[in-house]
Design brief:
8 helices, twelve-stranded mixed beta sheet, about 30% helix, 12 strands
Length: about 290
């Protein structure tokens, strides 16, 4: 059933691009990471603020040090209905949950589970064929020591959007003090021209993130994007937003962040509720033959 695998892989890939593709380390130095820990992001005094690039670098670094948090993404393009996606991330032990109207995905310990109603008596399926615990332990490769923060996942679009601002925005500025979701925040804004970003090579944005951002923006038909980031008094990113014009009309994507450090309590489904890939294919094939 190559068609089934292709469609499922596409669905999982879309969810992973949204949530898990933003993985890896950061290019912020330890001294920059300490910035933003005072009452005002980047400042030693309550009314003092560091330059926008310093604040955003520090916020990104601080985010990478958190073990867990939640984010809600809403998106609206042209006349299409607004979409909503809820995501939760935990670094140790690794776990991610992504929920939207179309997809409910869990990733726990490197195994992905997709919610399904297609398999009688099962609520989930996995594309990974099960092995016995003994076999997994016997064939597991030795763990590779992580570089500093290299394995810390940063979820959502933060690394793409903030990285793009730091890499290519020529008008990044401090907009002012605002209240965002009940939190006092400092608001930063910049414009990213994709043609400028395409030629960027430097520490603010790795080539992988740059290419991913250009691919997604190019597919949507954008030429440039206006990106806003709100950083709260503790140096955490509270909200971010990207706006631009696409082939389908004006587009706005907003992410809000919360529950930094709070365990999202994501657990793998009970094995008795999980169908194997073979079981899912068999059930889906039967459904297609019945209704096709």
């Amino acid at each position: 059933m190559k068609v089934i695998r292709k469609s499922v892989t596409a669905a999982i890939s879309a969810a992973l691009v949204m949530g898990l593709a933003a993985c890896g380390g950061h290019d912020t130095t330890a001294s920059e990471a300490k910035s933003g820990s005072s009452a005002r992001p980047g400042g030693a005094v309550a009314d003092e603020r560091a330059p926008a690039p310093v604040v955003l670098k520090a916020a990104l670094a601080k985010m990478a040090r958190q073990n867990s948090y939640r984010t809600v993404e809403t998106a609206k393009t042209g006349g299409e209905p607004e979409s909503r996606t809820e995501m939760a991330f935990r670094n140790e032990p690794e776990a991610t949950e992504i929920k939207s109207a179309e997809v409910h995905l869990l990733s726990v310990g490197g195994t992905s589970y997709m919610a399904t109603k297609d398999v009688p008596g099962k609520s989930w399926f996995t594309m990974d064929e099960p092995d016995s615990g003994t076999k997994k332990q016997a064939t597991a490769s030795p763990s590779t020591p992580l570089k500093e923060n290299a394995g810390r996942r940063v979820g959502g679009s933060v690394k793409k959007w903030v990285g793009a601002l730091l890499a290519a925005s020529k008008d990044l500025k401090d907009v002012g003090r605002e209240t965002t979701g009940g939190r006092a925040t400092d608001h930063y804004r910049g414009t990213v021209v994709l043609a400028d970003l395409k030629n960027y090579e430097g520490p603010a944005m790795t080539k992988d993130y740059r290419d991913l951002y250009l691919l997604q923006s190019g597919t949507a038909g954008r030429k440039k994007a206006e990106i806003d980031v709100w950083v709260d008094e503790n140096g955490f990113i509270a909200k971010e937003e990207e706006k631009g014009t696409t082939a389908k009309g004006d587009e706005r994507i907003t992410e809000t962040f919360s529950d930094y450090g709070a365990d999202p309590k994501i657990e793998a489904p009970d094995p008795k509720d999980v169908a194997t890939w073979s079981q899912y294919v068999a059930a889906s094939g039967k459904r297609y033959r019945t209704h096709g």
